[in-house]
Amino acid sequence: MVERLSGILCKKREMRSDPLNLFLRPGNDRVTVYDGARLSSDDYIRIFQYCPTVKDLRLRDAVQFKNKVMDHFLSTKITLEKLNLHGANLIDDERWNRFFKEKGENLKAFKLHYTDGHFGDEQLALLPKTCPNLTRLKIVHNQKVTDEGLEHIAKISSLVHLTINIYGQTSSPPYVEIINGVGPALRTLCIDKANIDDSVLEAIHENCQNIQKLRLTDNEFMTDRGFANLFSNWYNPPLTYIDFHKCRHIDSNDPRDNTDGIGFSSLGFEALMAHSGKTLKHVDINSCRHISLETFERVFAVDKKYLDLTFMNISFCQAVNDFVVGCIFRSCPNIKQLVVFGNFGVRSKILTGIPTAMGMQTEGTEDGEGRIAG
C-alpha cells in the first residue's frame, strides 16, 4: 500500500522533500521512488540516513543522484543487494569504480537506465571481478559501452537475467560471446536496438535451455529463416513472454519489398507458436509487417487454442483484418488486451487504435444515448 501511494504521488510529480519523509522509516529494506525529478541531492542522502537497513533501492528520474550522493553512500556501512537507477547521469566513472570495488560483493541486481556519457567499458570490466553474486544485469539507453565492454558480460557466470540496450554501434560477435558464456543459465534475455544478425539467434538456439522471456527488438538484420531455425528443435522449454516488435525489413522506397526475408515474418511466427503457443502469455509482434494473412489464419485456426495468452500486440501487421481478429478471440479465450493500431483492415468497433473514424471512438462504453463514456 505504501509503495502504491508512492506511485500515485510520483505520477503527478508531487514527490518532494516533505512527502518523501512519509515513506522513509527505520527498518525499511526497500525504498522505491517512481519519479524523483523534484528531489534534491540532500533528499537522496536522507534516504540512506533514515533507512540504514535498505537493501533494495529503486529510483526513477533520479537526476540529482550524483557524485555528492554517491560519496555519502560509499561512506556508510550500507550494503545494497539491488540497485535500480534511472536518469542518474551525473555520476562520474570514478565513483562507479569505487561503488563496485567497495559495495559490489553483495550486489545481486544492478539496473542502470539513461546515463548518457557515463558508465562504460571500464565499469563493465569490473563486474566479473567485484560482483560474484550478480544474477540480474540491465544496461539501458547507454551511449558509452562498446563491443569491448560487452565482452566482459560473458564472464559474469552468475547471471540469470540480462537486458542490454546500447545506443552506440555494436556488432554481433560480442553478443554471441555473451550467450556462449552465460546462455545456459539465462531465464531472461533482452537485446534491444542492436545491429545483430542470425549468428546471435544460432547462439541462443545452441546455448539457451532455460529461457522464459525473450525480447529482441528494433532489428533489420535478423532473417525470418533465422527466427524459424531458432524455434525448430530447440531444447528450451516453451516460452511465456515474447517481444519481437520492429524486427522488420526497412525500405524507404517500398516496405513491402522484402526479397531477402528480413525480419520476424511468417516462418518465424509459425515456428514460435508451434514451439511455445501453449504457454505464451505475452506476445508483441508490433510492426512485423511481413507476416501473411494465410499464416495468421493457420496459427489461429479453429482447432488451435492458446489458453494462457492474455496480451497480444499486432499493430502495423499489414495482413491483420476483422477475420484475423475474430480468429484470435476464438483461439485465445482468456485474452485481456489485444492491441491493434495502424491496421486498415480492422473495422471492428470493439477495438481501439484502428485508423477509421468509427474505430477511434471505441475507447470506453456507450451510455444510454449512444455516446461514448470514457
Automatic annotation (TrEMBL):
GO terms for biological process: SCF-dependent proteasomal ubiquitin-dependent protein catabolic process. It comes from the Eukaryota. InterPro entries: Leu-rich_rpt, Leu-rich_rpt_Cys-con_subtyp, LRR_dom_sf. Gene3D superfamilies: Ribonuclease Inhibitor. Pfam families: LRR_6. GO terms for cellular component: SCF ubiquitin ligase complex. PANTHER family: PARTNER OF PAIRED, ISOFORM B, PARTNER OF PAIRED, ISOFORM B-RELATED. This is DNA repair protein rhp7. It comes from Lachnellula subtilissima.
